Amino acid sequence: MENQRDKVADDPPSDLPHLDKLHSPMGNLPSLSGLTELQDCVSNLSLAHEITVNKYFCFKVENPPKDRITEIVHQAFWDTLQEQLSSDPPNYKHTIFLLQQIKSSLQSLLLPRHIRLRSQMDEVLDMQLIQQEVSHGALDVHKLAAYIINTMASLCAPVRDPQVRALMDLEDPVELLREIYRVLGLMNTDMLNFTVQCLRPHLLQHAAQYERSQFQKILDKQPASLDNTKLWLQAAAAEEKSSVKDSPVSATAVLNRAYMHLLSWDQQDQMYPETVVMDRTRLDSLGQKIQMLVLEATVLLLTNVQCGDAVFSHQGFISKLRRSIAALLEGSHTREADLKEALLGLGQSVLQQVNEALSNLGGSALPQESQDLLKGQISELWKHNNPVRTLIGERVQGFLQAMLQGSPTKRSPELPSPLRLLSAELAELGTAFGRIVHFNQKVFGPFYAPVLRKQLFQPGEAETGEDLN
Fold first, then answer.
1. Residues with Cβ within 8 Å of residue 349, at least 6 apart in sequence
2. Longest alpha-carbon distance in the chain
3. Rounded to the nearest 5 degrees, what angle is found at the Cα of 293, between the Cα atoms of 407 and 239?
4. How far apart are CA 88 and CA 70, in angstroms?
5. pLDDT confidence bin for 331, thresholds 50/70/90
6. How far does CA 313 lie from the centroid of its chain?
């Protein structure tokens, strides 16, 4: 299916809204006509990458616009249109421009086989004829609107049928044109998203090659575009050399260590590697979820140690405790003060559930000394160097690194207790992380290879033969 973007022959009034104001998870899709060739490469690369890695990617119409200034400009247009149509005799300046945009929008929905419909549209929405009707005071806005609505009904997706039918009940010309305009924006977005989904299988086949070529264009025009990436890989290489001492250093191990750093990247650090920046939002989100899993596993371990297996094996105890931990820690990862407060409340909740379970088992409450100890241990988990939290974090890191060593579709490595309780969630996060890493390495391996060669081998020294491409 082919899709055409709206084109208007003449410049519309400055306050006229545009139907193609779309936004994606990366922000507004810019008009490329006024951008430099370098910006074109960046935009194309970002859009192609998002379509490739995000199967839920879609464009959306800003309705209402998020930008307050844009909202004011749009409202000014409709207010002006109301004034023009209410004047005596009516002024149709904005109406003509609006009809022209509506015609262009309808044309963008047509397929090559719609020859007859295209011809009919050119005849009914003949802008020169409409201008003549305006000059003779014979323009019938409602008649044109009826044709437009019927055409929309024949072209729209089934999901838009109720909105198109609702247009037929509108009588006020300004409200009618405004709603036609709004629904057409939705229809154009439907067409664009359908086209993206149709193209996605083709993009997936050529995504790595395309992204690599686009990045090479960026690098040719801006050689400094690898500076942060080089620093990122150099730091990982130095750490890997230090950890293995006299043993040979694997380029793959260096890369995996570098990727692991991205899960705990300081939000204030602006030196993010350029080759991974398109996935930063996804990686930051994964890192936050992993930190929450580490905290959850740590609380489960501490609770198990203090209350024993009898309570832990009590029916429904673990699932209820996990729900409480997740609910109380939700949103606490952004500020240290929030995490401290959440952990204080969590400690109290854990004690309450432990004592309830002991009571149901016919036992007495946990000794006060044990209660104070457990509550204190949980409240101290906000510290990044907390020994128990550090231990669980290292186990999680080991699990993720083990997943990176093979294909993301291979069986997950065995998990130690208490992480087995969180195995499904951790495996899901590890798989998502692995997909990002393996695709990134496939695209940017040729750019990483010379940096790693320089770090790991002396001039003339034999290489290990690892393929990063």
1. 324, 328
2. 94
3. 60
4. 30
5. confident
6. 39
- Residues 449, 468 contacting (CB under 8 angstroms): yes
Query: In this structure, which long-range contacts are made by residues 325-333, counting pairs with CB atoms below 8 Å and at least 24 apart in sequence?
Result: 325/295, 325/296, 325/299, 325/300, 325/350, 326/292, 326/296, 329/292, 329/295, 329/296, 333/288, 333/291, 333/292
- Report DSSP letters for 142-153, one per residue: HHHHHHHHHHHH
The first and second tokens of residue 242, run together, are: 């230090």
- The rounded distance, in Å, linking the Cα atoms of 378 and 396 is 19
Q: What is the pLDDT of residues 430-440, one digit of tens each?
A: 999 999 999 99
Going from the C-alpha of 341 to that of each of 253, 331, 344, 348, 374, the distances in angstroms are 38, 12, 5, 11, 16
What's the whole-model pTM score?
0.70
Q: What is the C-alpha separation between 32 and 10, in angstroms, rounded?
A: 18
Count of residues in the chain: 469
Give the chain's radius of gyration (CA, Å).
30
Q: Which helix (H) or strand (E) holds 458?
A: none
